[in-house]
């Protein structure tokens, strides 16, 4: 027997209409490319997004078409975020930090018909134009007529100005209802090996993910929150912040392209931000600036970090020196992205100091709606004892079932589990801790060594700015850890003092066989260590040793 409840579908447009109707005066504040501050309200976002649908229609966009963006966090980008899915098209955010040939590949793979581009990417779009002309008919620069940059396109492509198009359009559009499983957004994984793969989100998955991240034990976003996603809107939907802020009626602060310590400090304080989210590197930069300038954060209460493992120094320094709680999250493009969040349960609530930090290094417990397990090489489930580590598998209504262009379900095993490619432990309270990407784990004499654990200890050395541990081939042990460190500005690193830090913290056989000091480490387009490149250079480092 079917129940008798209304069957209104979960439309992304209704996140926005909720914000416009019930939180009409809550603000969306943006730092623009021209370095001005733009302020308007959720009511304005909704009206302008309807106007943008009329623009998209004039550009020939219809249901199912992909609308690409190459843009920083800003209000015009936000309007594309809502207008494209609202009209049943797909908002395809592209990471501008990728290699131009990867960007062209992604645009063509997605068959984007139109691209919305920030002025700072004028040279990039000129460079790739000849390679994307078969698909992209219009490039719309996200600026006003007075700030149009020099852009040269290929024959058959048209250049347009966002504000000029918007000024000429009506806002008489009415948001339609359609199947909530319709595609809403597309995001390609950064892919440290091989070509990037597309993850195609739905309206339904986005709604459920939005609900879950707002919960008190997750990001705890409400109408009184002032939210600044440092994480770019091209990195897995800025972790859902643009949707969650709207559904909560929170103030949303979009910082634009400059994410350095001084700029961030200024915007966080001026706009009275209470909650911010981003990768550890950005907050390490912020910390360095606060320490060297003596500045304080006047309103920020919580920093959520994820995307790569949070180093202990970040958690300790913000808590002890600035009274700010650094909270650890884990996710991936295939999970919309949030899978786990580290909010203590009663058993951990009393932890302080080093014990609290140790606990916060865990990536956390699942957000409600997601299930997870760890399995060994034969697929057998491993115990939740915080010690056994194995491949992390997940399931849930906002987990991808296949990559764009593939058969539905093709990314899942026979029981519907998605293999994350991460290696993790889970403790008795359900807190998961990533020990590695499965391809980064070091297999020494048949036992596994966690590269993340070794890196975290290395970066706690005062003279070390960044560290990477990779598996180098070894005649006797198969693989042994090799530590690469970048000195902090103005410092030199003494390898022996770095190795001394490991004493008492890890088993002796986990110690890196050697420490190599390097001027810099390679990174992916989302700021993660590019270990494939390091392995290519250093994999034979121990060859010939006993
Ligand atoms: P992406 O799809 O680009 O967001 O990358 C997802 C991957 O980033 C995950 O599979 C993890 O390997 C890594 N990752 C994300 N969050 C964390 C975290 N808190 N700690 C360690 N690794 C993380």
Task: Give the key terms.
single chain; 546 residues; alpha/beta; Rossmann fold; GMP Synthetase, Chain A, domain 3; nine-stranded mixed beta sheet; 25 strands; 29% helix; 23% strand; binds adenosine monophosphate
3D architecture notes:
The chain is α/β, with parallel strands linked by helices and 546 residues long. Among the domains are: 1-23 and 34-202, ANL, N-terminal domain (Rossmann fold), CATH 3.40.50.12780; 440-538, ANL, C-terminal domain (GMP Synthetase, Chain A, domain 3), CATH 3.30.300.30. The strands form five sheets. It has a nine-stranded mixed sheet with strand order 2-1-11-10-12-13-14-15-16, sandwiched between helices. The protein is globular, with a radius of gyration of 24 Å. The model has no long low-confidence stretch (mean pLDDT 95). The site of adenosine monophosphate has 21 residues, from strand 14, strand 19 and strand 20. Adenosine monophosphate binds at residues 189-190, 236, 306-309, 328-333, 337, 363, 420-422, 434, 437, 526.
């Amino acid at each position: 027997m079917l129940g008798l409840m209304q069957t209104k579908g979960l439309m992304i447009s209704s996140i926005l209409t909720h914000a416009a109707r019930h939180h009409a005066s809550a603000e969306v504040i943006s730092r623009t490319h021209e370095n001005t501050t733009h302020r308007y309200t959720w009511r304005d976002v909704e009206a302008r997004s309807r106007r943008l649908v009329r623009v998209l229609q004039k550009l020939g966009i219809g249901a199912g078409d992909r609308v690409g963006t190459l843009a920083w966090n800003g209000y015009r980008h936000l309007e594309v975020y809502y207008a494209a899915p609202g009209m049943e098209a797909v908002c395809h955010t592209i990471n501008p930090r990728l290699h131009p040939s990867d960007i062209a590949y992604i645009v063509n793979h997605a068959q984007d018909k139109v691209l919305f581009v920030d002025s700072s990417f004028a040279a990039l779009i000129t460079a790739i134009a000849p390679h994307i002309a078969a698909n992209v008919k219009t490039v719309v620069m996200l600026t006003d007529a007075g700030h149009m940059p020099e852009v040269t396109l290929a024959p058959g492509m048209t250049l347009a100005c966002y504000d000029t198009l918007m000024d000429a359009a009506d806002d008489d559009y009415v948001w339609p209802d359609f199947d909530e499983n319709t595609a809403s957004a597309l995001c390609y994984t950064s892919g440290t090996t091989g070509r990037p793969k597309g993850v195609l989100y739905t309206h339904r998955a986005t709604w459920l993910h939005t609900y879950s991240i707002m919960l008190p034990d997750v990001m705890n976003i409400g109408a009184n929150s002032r939210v600044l996603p440092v994480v770019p809107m091209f990195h897995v939907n800025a972790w859902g912040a643009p949707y969650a802020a709207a559904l909560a009626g929170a103030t949303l602060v979009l910082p634009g392209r400059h994410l350095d310590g001084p700029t961030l400090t200024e915007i966080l304080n001026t706009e009275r931000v209470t909650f911010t989210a981003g990768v550890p590197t950005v907050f390490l930069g912020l910390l360095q600036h606060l320490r060297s300038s003596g500045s304080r954060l006047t309103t920020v209460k919580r920093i959520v970090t994820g995307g790569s493992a949070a180093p202990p120094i970040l958690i300790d320094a913000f808590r002890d020196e600035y009274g700010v709680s650094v909270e650890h999250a884990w996710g991936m493009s295939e999970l919309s992205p949030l899978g786990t969040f580290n909010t203590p349960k009663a058993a951990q609530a009393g932890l302080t100091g080093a014990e609290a930090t140790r606990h916060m290094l865990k990536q956390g417990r699942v957000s409600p709606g997601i299930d997870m397990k760890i399995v060994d090489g034969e697929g057998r489930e491993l115990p939740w004892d915080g010690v056994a580590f194995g491949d992390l598998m997940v399931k849930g209504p906002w987990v991808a079932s296949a990559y764009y262009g593939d058969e539905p379900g093709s990314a899942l095993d026979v029981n519907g589990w998605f293999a994350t490619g991460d290696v993790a432990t889970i403790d008795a309270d359900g807190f998961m801790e990533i020990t590695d990407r499965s391809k980064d784990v070091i297999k020494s004499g048949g036992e596994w060594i966690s590269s993340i654990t070794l890196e975290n200890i290395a970066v706690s050395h005062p003279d070390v700015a960044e560290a990477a541990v990779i598996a180098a081939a070894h005649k006797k042990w198969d693989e042994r850890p090799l530590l690469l460190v970048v000195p902090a500005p103005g410092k030199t690193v003494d390898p022996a003092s770095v190795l001394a830090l490991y004493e008492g913290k890890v088993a002796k056989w986990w110690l890196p066989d050697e420490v190599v000091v390097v001027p810099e480490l390679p990174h992916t387009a989302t700021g993660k260590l590019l270990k494939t490149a390091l392995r290519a250079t250093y994999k034979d480092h121990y060859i010939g040793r006993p």
